[in-house]
Amino acid sequence: MTSAVAAEARGSWFQEKILLGMRPGEYLRSLLTPFNGVAAFICMVGVPLLLYRFYAGLGATTNLSQTQPWGVWIGFDMMTGIALAAGGFTIGAAVEIFGLEEYHAIERPAILTGFLGYLMAVVGLIADLGKPWNMVQIFAQNGTRSVLFEVAWCVVCYTLVLSLEFAVPFFEWLGLRRLYQPLRKILLALTVLSVMFSSMHQSALGSLFIIAPGKLHPLWWSPWIFAFFFITAVIAGISMVIVESSISHRIFASQLRGHHVDADALTIGLGKAGAVVLFAYFFLKLQGVIDNHAWGYIGQGFLGKWWLVEMLGFVLLPSLLYAWGARHRRADVVRVAGVIAVLGIILNRVNVSMVAWDYENPDHYLPSWMELWVSLTLVTIGVLAFRWIVLRMPVLREPADLAAEH
Amino acid sequence: MTGHEFLSTYPAKLLEYTLGVGYLLLFIPFWRYVRGGQAVRVAATARRAVRAAGATATSWFTVPDGVLLHPGHTWARPAGDGLVEVGLDDFAARLLGPVERMGLPPPGSAVAQGSPALLARDGDKLVPLVSPVDGTVAEVNPAVEREGAWQEEPYGAGWLFKVRPTRLPSNARQLFSGAAARRWLEQAGESLAARAAPRLGAVLQDGGAPVPGIARELSPERWDELCREYFRS
């Protein structure tokens, strides 16, 4: 009798927390949507491909070579994924450290985006490195003169901090007050750590290229490339939060019921910040080009023109659009600028690590379909995980105990 | 290409400094542009607020120019189409505070200066308010049904009804305008403060204006009597 009651209680807990209050049959039927169909197809091909890479090796699955050892998994998954995950520390710092309390409503989704972005980047990195069991070696080494050493430590420490930050809504969801109360109290300390680790990590990814002035095209290479990586990470953080919050507010509108957030005002405020950072970045990049004596490359050949496309179309244009949208209080224009800026960051990372990399080598790298498919799979898993978590945990909506206090 | 032969050191330095100075010079208008929208809006809001407050922004209760005030704390303002707008003044709005219903005279009915024309109802408490002019009711403000219009903008969107006046010139001689209206509101405020001193010290001494619904704060049981005393009804 007691066990039957316990079983029923367990069943209802599972139904409430995991199946969103639906019966198993209902829940499975609710999953039959075109989006889920496409996502399932991508994952059904992608996950075996990922396993195949560990079985057959890089040579069988990728177009990497001795002259081009870094491909999409580093250039897109790692470099871009990490930059786009910068919203976590950008908004965390704005709310917890600079006291911009009005952005509190978008802090959790930003942290969640950061956490999932990092997890997916780490999976991409492991796919590139292979032999995950050997990775612990790096912690046994004293490689303090290596940039990769810094990158490895930062990625581990920051993922740990992000998982602790994410543990707050996770434990709130499970109702484990004893676990989330102390974490909420140390959130400020976690934010300080996250700003430190992620700014070191973002810039260290740029530092990887300092040793390659001959290999990276002079318009992109600069001894200050680590600073450019950090500044573009801030731009990516701001822009991703704009894009991600406008999408989630539309898709997860039911989560926001009774929760008065002026999403447009927040978007415009972020747009103002984006305009200024992009504007400054545009001039710093020009300064970098002059400093590198590479002025004459501008407009020369494909890469010279491509650089202009990146700088004018994906740095200056979003900066001016952000400015116009912020001045005229047009949240829709700010959102368009956000999308362009995000594309610009992706373009920048892909340019640095692939297009303008090893530019004089006639045998230029092009990723294989399997590499692209694995990257697509990781992005899809990230999106699915985001949705799964937002629908269940207090990420967009307020946690029950705080909502009751208001 | 060896890469770095395009620019020798001195022109490069010149370009760097020019770019640095150019950036700083451009950043000023850029920043003003980005922030500008907000500054313009704030200034416009402030200007509107000052206009609405007339010259009495320093006192608690405001009355704009062009409004004729009745000692019973209702006002009249010629609307330009031969009609006269009627409403409650700032003092009445705040003394009364939010009420369940503001009863308006039906269009076509006659109102007389100093006679009750409006009826504020809250629970079993009734507070009549007098008409500032004589005439026939031509129109009532539909926005009054929306709660708070006469509370928030007693001299603007919160007007209550329009009257076709029968003897406006002689009515107007009984009403306060301009500086006299402001003095009248100040006196009413002082009288209220004297009455309120034991209860409302904190509100008054901190320099803040009295809260809406002040009559209820002062006399929770008999606030309607207090209102009738000030509204002369």
Task: Return residue spans of chain B where pLDDT drops below 50 for at least 5 consecutive residues.
Answer: 53-58, 199-207
What is the number of helices of chain A?
17
Q: Write down the overall mean pLDDT of chain A.
A: 88
Task: Find the count of extended strands of chain B (DSSP E, 2+ residues).
Answer: 9
Q: What is the 3D shape of chain B?
A: elongated
Structural class from helices and strands of chain B? alpha+beta
**How would a crystallographer describe the biggest sheet of chain B?**
6 strands, antiparallel
**What would you call the quaternary organization?**
heterodimer
Strand order of the largest sheet of chain B: 1-2-3-9-8-5
Strand percent estimate of chain B: 15-25%
Could you spell the SSE succession of chain A in H and E letters?
Answer: HHHHHHHHHHHHHHHHH
Q: What is the β-strand count of chain A?
A: 0
- Share of helix among residues of chain B? 40-55%
Biggest β-sheet strands, sense, barrel of chain A: none
The gyration radius over C-alpha positions of chain B equals 27 Å
Radius of gyration of chain A: 22 Å
Question: TL;DR?
Answer:
The complex is a heterodimer of chains A (406) and B (233). By secondary structure, chain A is an all-alpha fold.
Explain what you see:
- The complex is a heterodimer of chains A (406) and B (233).
- The model of chain A has no long low-confidence stretch (mean pLDDT 88).
- Chain A is 73% helix and 0% strand.
- The two termini of chain A are 41 Å apart.
- In chain A, α6 packs antiparallel against α7 and α7 packs across α9 (147-174).
- By secondary structure, chain A is mainly alpha-helical.
- Chain B contains seven helices and nine strands.
- In chain B, strands 1-2-3-9-8-5 form a six-stranded antiparallel beta sheet.
- In chain B, β1 and β2 (74-78) form a beta hairpin.
- Chain B is elongated.
- Mean pLDDT of chain B is 78; it is low at 53-58 and 199-207.
